Amino acid sequence: MKSEPDEVSIDHLAARPGQTVGWFGVRNYQARNFMRDAMQIGDLVLFYHSSCAEPGIAGLAEVCSAPYPDPTQFDPASPYHDPKSPADAPRWVQVDVRFVQKSRLITLTELRQYPELAAMRLLQRGNRLSITPVEPTEWAFIVDLMERAA
DNA sequence: GCCAACGTTGGC
DNA sequence: GCCAACGTTGGC
User: Fold this and answer.
1) What stretch of H or E contains A2?
2) Coil, helix or strand for A135?
3) Residue A84 Cβ < 7 Å to strand B
4) Which residues belong to any copy of the EVE domain (predicted)?
5) Residue A62: which CATH number?
């Protein structure tokens, strides 16, 4: 899951251990579908810092709710307001996540150096999805990287 | 700030 | 249903 650290960084989550954070504001159908259809409570999440000086994976979070309607879609004052979303059939959902651990920053540059990750969805050309699935082999490789020096 | 990539919108 | 125009993402 990508987040702009100016908005929500791994440190923000770490400052409130045990507290859940709603992952609101997803407004892309593919990303929504991953949340709605593929995520399970208890799933771990790679927390990625995007649109910043040093983009990369900064830690782990955990999915801790089922998908439920994102309230910001109905809030006219929100930048995520979607006037076309029907109240009786909300278009956008979110899940709650909570902090698991901070890791060393595994930068995008580093991630691109590993042939083992060449097929990773996050790294594909033109990928803009804020939520992408991670293959088990990629997951194992990255968790291992977290414990090694850069 | 630039720009490639891609999604969405809306006229036809 | 096609596709041009436009908007957004996000690395650089």
Assistant:
1) strand A2-3
2) coil
3) yes
4) 1-144
5) 3.10.590.10
How far apart CA A100 and CA A84 sit, in angstroms, is 36
Sequence-separated (6 or more) residues with CB below 8 Å from residue A137:
A116
* Closest to A98 measured CA to CA, from A139, A42, A39: A42
- CA–C1' nearest nucleotide, residue A31: B7
Structural domains counted in chain A: 1
Give the span between the Cα atoms of A21 and A123, in whole angstroms. 26
Tens digit of pLDDT at every position of chain A (150 positions) = 999 999 999 999 999 999 999 999 999 999 999 999 999 999 999 999 999 999 999 999 999 999 999 999 999 999 999 999 999 999 999 999 999 999 999 999 999 999 999 999 999 999 999 999 999 999 999 999 999 877
Q: Is the CB of A19 under 7 A from strand B?
A: no
Token pair of A78 as six digits: 């929100």
Beta strands in A4-89 (DSSP E): 20-22, 44-49, 56-63, 68-69
